[in-house]
Every structure is written in C-alpha cells, then in structure tokens.
Amino acid sequence: MLFKLAWKSLLARRVSVLLTILMMTVSIFVLLSVETIRYQAKDSFTKTVSGVDLIVGARTGQVNLLLYSVFHIGVPTNNISWQSYQEIASQPAVAWTIPISLGDSHKGYRVIGTSTDFFEFFRFGNKQPLEFQQGKAFDDHFDAVIGSEVAKQLGYQVDDAIVLSHGIANTSFSNHDDNPFKITGILAPTGTPVDQSVYVSLQGIEAIHANWQGGVQIPGRATPNVKDLQPQAITAFMLGLNSRIQTFNLQRQVNEYQQEPLQAILPGATLMSLWSMLSSVEQLLLLIASLVLLGALIGMANMLLVSMRERRHELSVLRALGYRPSFLFALLQIEALLISLAAAFTAFISLQLSMYVLKDWLLQEYGILLTRLSIINEFMFMLPMVLIASFVVALIPAITAYRQGLHQQLNL
Amino acid sequence: MTNRPAIQIENCQFRYQPDSDKALLHIAHWQIEKGETVFVYGPSGSGKSTLLNLLAGILIPQQGNITLDDVTLNQLNHRKRDAFRAQHIGMVFQRFNLIPYLTVADNIKLASHFSKLDKKHLQQRTLELMKALQLEVALLERPASQLSVGQQQRVAIVRALVNQPELLIVDEPTSALDSDARDSFVDLLLGQVQAAKATLIFVSHDRSLAQHFSRQLDIQSFVIAGEKHAV
Fold this sequence. Notes:
Largest interface: A-B, 23 and 34 residues
Order of helices and strands of chain B: EEEHEEHEHHHEHEEH
Distance between the termini of chain B: 40 Å
Shape of chain A: elongated
Structural class of chain B: alpha/beta
Number of strands of chain A: 17
Largest sheet of chain B: 5 strands, parallel
Helix content of chain A: 40-55%
CATH superfamily of chain B: P-loop containing nucleotide triphosphate hydrolases
Order of helices and strands of chain A: HHEHEHEEHEEEEHEEEEHEEEEHEHHHH
Number of domains of chain B: 1
Structural class of chain A: alpha+beta
Strand content of chain A: 15-25%
Strand content of chain B: 15-25%
Oligomer: heterodimer
Shape of chain B: globular
Helix content of chain B: 25-40%
Number of helices of chain A: 12
Radius of gyration of chain B: 18 Å
Number of strands of chain B: 9
CATH topology of chain B: Rossmann fold
Strand order of the largest sheet of chain B: 6-7-8-3-9
C-alpha cells in the first residue's frame, strides 16, 4: 500500500517529478563520469608502460618527457644524438633499448620511428607483450606496423600503402608522398596509445627526411640509397636493465652525461608525480560534482516540501483512516528513493550510451580506455552513496510530514 | 458488545495552549448510547472540530476521560490510538475525503487495509455498500478526481463504513451539496448507519437537518459550561 501510494502520487505530479529526476540525472551523470574517467585515466596511464626501467630523452621536464615518449602527448623539445644513444645502449648494465623518433603523422595518428626491439621488449598492462593481429613486424625501410585503432578507423589491411605527413597536425599539407609505406602488420588491441600509432623503422624516418631541409622538401634532391642510411638523432629511448639495482646508478650517469644534456626518468615514479600533480584537479572535479549532486538533492527535498502544501488534505485523510505519522515519513522517503533510483539508473544508462559514442575519441585524444565493467563498478559503488545522501536530504520533508501528521487536526 | 455507552465523556477539559485559559472546551458529563444519532451544531469556530478531533483520538484532553465503549482514548499511547481509530471509527469530512489520484477501489482499500475481515468478505461488503449508496460498480476503477462531489461524498461513506466501525464521525458532509442532494445524502447515510448498528456524530451548522437525528447537541453548551466551571 505504501509503495503503491508513493508511486501513484509521483505519477500524479509527473511534470515536477520528471524535472526533479532530470535534475538529479544530470548531477549523478556528472559525478559518475568524473569518477569513471578519474579511475580509468589512472588505470590506463599506469597500464600504458610496464617493464621499462628508464626513459632517456633530451633535458626537459620529467613529466613532459614521459608524456611525449609514452603517451604521445605534447611536442618533444629536443633530440638526442645517435652517438649518445649508442653509447648508453652499449653500457653493460643495459639489457635492451627501444629508440623512439617522433615528428611525423598519418591522418592525425602519430608515426613513431623505432626498431624491431620495440615489438620484442615493449610491455604494457601487467607485463603483457605486444602481439600481432595480422602480419608481422617491419622488415624493410618502407614497411609500417599500425595499431589496432588505426586499422579499424581507417579500414587498413596488411599490404595497403600509406603516405606519412610531416608534422603532427591532423591535416598536414606537406606529405611524404614520394615515399609511400607498406603495411606489414597490425597489432592486437592494447588499450594504450600503441593502438593509435603507426610504427616504422628509424631508417624509414631517415629516408623520407633525407631530401628535406628545415621542414620542407627540397626539389630535385633524390632519395639516397636507403641501405646507407644511418639515423642522425632520435627523440628518446626506453631501456631495460639486466638488474634493477642498477637503475639509479645508470640514471645518474645519464643525467651527468658530458657530451649532451640528457635526462633519464623512472616511468613509475614520474607517473606518480604526474598523478600527485593532477590529484588536486581531480579532487576539485570530484568536489564540484558532489556539490552539483547536493544541489540537485536539495532541489528534490524542496520539491517534496512544496508538494506537502497541496497534499495537506491527503495526509490528513491518511491520518483519519488510522495511518501513523511514521507512515507519512516512510511515504515521503520512498518517494525520494524512487526519484533517486530513477535518476541514478537514467544517469547510468546515459553514461553507458555516451561512453559507447565517445569511447574512440577518448582513446584517441587522451589514451583513456573505458570499459563497461568499470562504469558498472563505479555505479555499484556510487549508488548506495547517492541513496544514503537522498535519504539524509529527504529527512527534511519526511520529518515535516511526520510532525504534520502528529500535530495537525482533522479539520478539512 | 457490552452494554456500556458508545461515548462517555467525564469532566473533560481541553485548550490549545496549555497555559492559556481561552478557547476552552469543558464537558462535565456527556454520554451517548449505542445506535444513537447525534446532531451537533453551532457557529464556526465554536469548537465542533475540536470535539471531533477529541473523539477521534487526534487531540487529547488536558483533564478528564473520553471513553468509547470500553476503551479510554486518553489512556492509550498515540500508536494505539491510531490503531483504534483505524478499526473502530469511520470519518467523513466536508470535502477532500478521497485521494484524487487513486481509483475509488484503492481509496476504499486504504481503509480496508486495516480490516480484520478477509479479502472476499471485504470485496462483498464494498459492493453491498456501493449498491446501497447508489454508486455504480464501474466507478470503482475510476480515479477519484473524476467523480462528482456527491459521488465522492458517498464513496467516503462507503470507505468509512467498510471496516464496520462502531462510531461514525461526519463533519459538514453536505456543505458542498445542493439541497436536493443533501436530503437524499442524509437519508442514505442514516439508512446505512442503522443497518451497521453504528453510532453517528453528525456535525453541521445547517439546523434544518436536525429533525433527522435522535439527539441534538449545541456545542456552545460545552463552551459555556466550561466558562461557568472555570469561574
């Protein structure tokens, strides 16, 4: 009876109830998205690179080096010379290296010049190796391997030809169309920026820039014999050590390198410092989202409170029939509960839908992979909180109804 | 059923502000036998509603006892008073008896929810009362807001009687009705009260209705009596 009464009474006031639900939906949506993205961003970030002991690049901010070398966000400030790279890579402590050469793109996707060691030594997530969905690693200078999202979005297959563009803008007018690349492999999805990237050999990068100078093509200059190509410089490199004990030792060596100003960072530690930088923003977002929810809850309480005026007769009739004041309290609380539940589930479904739509864009632009499971987890965590908050705020109209029931006379 | 009076009020005093001596209702002794129909009249603001709220157990006198059959209302806690009202007292108000967004059937169920009768008997009793009060069965599924005022008042009587209360309290039920409807309403009401062997307290300022009832009470006699006693 209680439930039916609450339900029918909400239906009878459907316009103001719907507006209240809408208001609550928007606020829960904001809170849920902030929480989901917050969690997912952190998760994606920490999953992007694993098993790399140091990242070496030109001297710049630690976070900056991490961002451009691993996440392909931002612009590298300077290169490091091939000589320095070779020298550090040949240290006995170093087990393997992955060179990274940035600066070109293909239809908005970053092109990374590297070596086949990348496919062998790079790890993501929980130390998972890269796998090929189709084809194999590059072999020739004008071979390319593409990430799964690139293949999916642009509809590429193995053996398709692609033309790289100079620079990293989405639409570039200077194309390396004199030297098309052939796709030899497509990587399996990783949920990291790898999916959004095109990998070519360092020699390939060198070859397409051989007849260029200062960012423009010099007409008439022929592409040299690619066999002779020796890269002059790379942007950065990742390295793995034989023993992790040597990490700080080698880091100091790199930082004190005499020939060139270099910098080595520990990816894990830098990720942590990045997060601590972002955590205040993160907290602020969470605070704003919570305040928005609080506002919506107060709006709901107000709607219920205002409705008490027009329901004076109704509550009086219930009292005359022998319903106790606590019944009126429960009635108001159940109405609030129904509104909150409706809003929470609407928010959840709209978030699922918008995530479905925005998934690719988020992964592409920010390297954040959203999974359905994570939204469900966040929701399960948040739903009780929202319901408790709704209960607390709805105490205002519910107690008013209780007191009205206790003291009001039956003179209608 | 005992042979005790339906209502017995002894030495009862009530005021709204416990420390004021204004608006005082004082009932030295008032007794109503079972099956009596009482017409209570008096100008508005004279304490009629207060008396009804005292009888319904919503208000509690500061002094004295109000006893319905063998239950002294002011000795029960408020939870028990609410339960007693649900089982033993039916009430009909001037207007707004029904919850507009519920169907007629659901409005009646609001009361029969507390009944000790089983579902089948309740259904039967509802249909009997509907018929006796000249309400079509088809109205049961209509939202209360779609009914005319006269129909709403009759549904209110059905609901008030469905739990077979010993006492029926009716507050200005005819003020929203025109004079023809008013007389037939009072006739129907009295017929059903008699059939249910209930006691009726009928409050109105319309003295032309008084002839239908077995007893009359001028509410001002309680007030005046109170003032005399207070001196």
